[in-house]
């Protein structure tokens, strides 16, 4: 592969050469499929957007013709020859090439539509808890540590300065960004905590590190549910502090090119009616309206609690609808136990769903019927839901989405409501998500969930170069039989020969099979480089 480092000299385009794989919808009503192209694609250095491609330019001759035709000169090549000047009639480009022998390919960056950044220290810690006791035992304690000391005179937290966030909070947020970028997450919709300085620190760090992000200050003012050591003291406190983070983020990134605020009532039980009302109004008061994120219908005990706290509402979804929180820019996490009426309401409001399969399993919440959501025309993306989810990897979420969809047929509600197989048992298999579908949810589905379907998620004209370079590694089989090796010397050992990560290739796989192997056994070792808006934000040698 060519260099993935940033160039010392100005250039007009980066030309990416090699193999490009993405998940696409071939037509309306169809299912996603993987598409593969070989050739060259170029991205403007000015705005990080795709300016064109040539799928004929897949060999050296055709690529040289493309360079000549466009008056392009390779800035690294001329710099290596000490001849940067003297090419004034040419357009300078930087070239990044995949190594085909290492099974490298460009793939759209992953979009994590639901992740709690302050919970990252708890990833993998949940014991045998379920949602409501997990919140009290594991989650509120860790999130509460992101607060800054109150003002000595007023007793309130008045600072909005990210530097007033505890250093450990800043370090945890920086590590979450490093970790998610290393897994190919180019955009994340983050929940922070209810602390303004720490929330602003998360926004600032995403901005500095170059990760596209939605940043939500978590609102929770209901004293009947929230713990005293970690809550907003009134609906007005929720509103004022949320406004402070919105103003901070708008000042940080006025065009919202990288970082945007997202209104975040944690979930119905943590919020009073006035808080829900004022947050719905707040989101609607901006043009365009702000994004909103919350949780819905994750766990059976939570459903009972919502019924008890909001007896006037017909359903959980109706609580949010009453306060104008179901909008086309609302991300609803989990959605495991929605009724048909709730799904119809969510569809009518064009609100979006973040499917969090790892967390749903870990906390024993249930299996989300993703196929039903998709069949009913609801937009779905994937969320890691750290730390309900144990992994910050969206590839892991894609794998778990495939796995959970296969378990769905075992559940009584699915068996009751859906067609059986030819023998009249279980299910006819339609619930199963394919690898192409789960990768679609991880990229284009996520893009639609964050209302950026025209900007990210694929390789289309004008889309931002939010992309990862995947390296599966080469095939390095020994020439001799392992039976002829000295026992245990490892000379015929594929693992020792150095494949990248866990993906062992034997040279017999089709390209589609290589992608299946990547989804089922790949990890961050396969992510060689990551760009956001054309800027290199992560690389691994
Ligand atoms: O998975 C979850 N994680 C949380 O932090 C949370 N808060 C409310 N509901 C929740 N669900």
Automatic annotation (TrEMBL):
UniProt keyword annotation of Plastid present: no
Pathway: Purine metabolism; guanine degradation; xanthine from guanine: step 1/1
Record flagged with keyword Metal-binding: yes
Cofactor dependency: Zn(2+)
Signal sequence region: none
Family named by the database record: Belongs to the metallo-dependent hydrolases superfamily. ATZ/TRZ family.
Name assigned to this protein: Probable guanine deaminase
Phylogenetic placement of the source organism: Eukaryota, Fungi, Dikarya, Ascomycota, Pezizomycotina
